[in-house]
Specification:
single chain, 223 residues, alpha+beta, Alpha-Beta Plaits, eight-stranded antiparallel β-barrel, 35% helix, 34% strand, globular
Length: 223
């Protein structure tokens, strides 16, 4: 009931979210800074962030794979990488409280974007849609996203539709120069009749939504 149109290739993205133990975030980020190059030697990292608002003590990272065989090969290599296991995993795992992963595809009308410059903030918005997939809500959802883009207040980085995990979930990644720019843009969008009309149509298919303000790590390609 959830699978729908996606990019016309086997590429998918694994979204990994870790809850870090309270008071251990600083230590965890130090371990990442010191040893994460062992992980990125094996496959492509899209982005790595920690939460600033909307959630506490969370990190989120996104990995790109050509197909499932590629991911299997990478996971096998990581299991046998002594540096990764002995230096990063042994130090990081005691700091992690919970792990969660999802597999998602970019929706077919979206290409993965990049920010206008480094140094901004990212917003990760999760929409739980009604069962039925894009055949039910895809057009209305796309119209709502486009309406926000057309206001010019924010930049779209990517729209991801889950294949494994909680189905009928769409994650939207936005970029803004600062939290204040994001706040000003939201205010403008709420007064824009085009946005209001598009959102009013799309929320008929919405079950819930939540968001996080994310800060990129130094190792993140998306900064």
């Amino acid at each position: 009931l959830a699978t729908g149109p996606r990019q016309n290739n086997g590429i998918f993205y694994e979204i990994r979210t870790y809850d870090i133990k309270p008071a251990k975030m600083k230590e965890f980020l130090e371990v990442v800074s010191k040893y994460f190059h062992f992980r990125t030697a094996h496959s492509e990292l899209v982005g790595f962030w920690y939460s600033e608002l909307g959630a506490m003590n969370k990190v989120l990272h996104i990995w790109k794979y050509d197909n499932f065989a590629h991911r299997t090969a990478v996971r096998h290599a990581l299991a046998n990488d002594k540096d990764w296991q002995g230096k990063f995993i042994s130090a990081a795992l005691p700091l992690v409280e919970k792990q969660h992963n999802e597999v998602a595809y970019l929706v077919p009308w979206c290409q993965l974007g990049k920010p206008s410059k480094e140094g901004g903030v990212y917003e990760w918005v999760t929409f739980q849609m009604k069962p039925g997939g894009p055949a039910l809500w895809g057009e209305a959802f796309r119209a709502a996203i486009n309406a926000h883009i057309n206001t010019g207040y924010t930049k779209l980085i990517g729209v991801f539709h889950t294949e494994y995990g909680l189905l009928n979930t769409v994650h939207v990644l936005w970029w803004n120069e600062s939290p204040d720019q994001r706040a000003a843009g939201r205010h403008s969008a709420h007064e824009d009749a085009r946005v209001v009309a598009a959102v009013r149509d799309s929320v008929r298919f919405l079950e819930s939504q939540q968001n996080m303000l994310l800060i990129p790590l130094q190792c993140s390609p998306l900064k």
